[in-house]
Amino acid sequence: MSTFKQHSILPGFNLALGFTLLYLSLIVLIPLSAAFIRTAELTWLEFWTIVTTPRVMASYRLTFGASFAAALVNAVFGLLVAWVLVRYHFPGKKLVDALVDLPFALPTAVAGIALTALYAGNGWIGQFLEPMGFKVAFTPLGIFVALTFIGLPFVVRTVQPVLEDIESELEEAAATLGANRWQTFTRVIFPALFPALMTGFALAFARAIGEYGSVIFIAGNMPMISEITPLLIITKLEQYDYAGATALSVVMLVISFILLLIINLLQWWSRRRSIES
Questions:
Q1: Topology annotation, domain 43-276
Q2: CA angle at residue 73 from 126 to 115, to 5 degrees?
Q3: What Cα–Cα distance (Å) separates residue 107 from each residue in 67, 161, 218, 229?
Q4: Helix or strand or coil: residue 9?
Q5: Which of 210, 220, 214 is nearest to 112 (CA)?
Q6: Shortest CA distance to 270 belongs to which of 184, 173, 201?
Q7: Are the C-beta atoms of residues 128 and 48 closer than 8 Å to each other?
Q8: d(CA 240, CA 2)
Q9: Is the pTM of this model over 0.90?
Q10: Which of 42, 50, 177, 217 would be a feasible disulfide site paired with 112, CB 3.0-4.6 Å?
């Protein structure tokens, strides 16, 4: 008969495991299963018709495309911000470090209104961009800007502790062996940072997929152009179309889970490869 292996010398493993599973069931599994149960009331044809209309398909492309692009940009610039905060000392560093966490504390509606005010045609930034042909507010580009804003802290705060733990002796040893700065970064530092960077990318991507408050203000919400899937879900709920809303929710859940699973597998593979090497 198989039993759970107790990995800690502290007592209460079975009790802690039971409470953990109960908590996850109440907070995560049961609410998610309710969406699948409600969607099961639809026939397969009804479900397929709801989730594949041209308007819904356009919202999928925009939601996942903008989320992926924003997370990718945040992975690059989040790494850069974390590097500056860890490796350099400059006046106002504490202020910059605090500003990184601002999207965490700022209500999403406030962020959306602020970004719209900045990038609208008469805004502080938009008044200079629009004459050059860059319209941000009420376009898909505005959605990308909003998702980049709310996703940056996830990458910075994930990479920053790992970067702080990397010993400077490793870089000195690489320099002693004749490696230049670029070789030291790509062959010594970046492999150690890559798992954390992938984690930050996954968190930023997941956050962006479900973002609603900051996006609806700057998106314009024009069907087939700048309408995100979470807005369609809210619209169906307001129309008391609960089955249709849960159908879209299930599609979002499944696609998000698959994408995050792939990212986590890549992260696991990179960690295993770094350990073996």
A1: MetI-like fold (1.10.3720)
A2: 30
A3: 19, 26, 15, 20
A4: coil
A5: 214
A6: 201
A7: no
A8: 48
A9: no
A10: 217
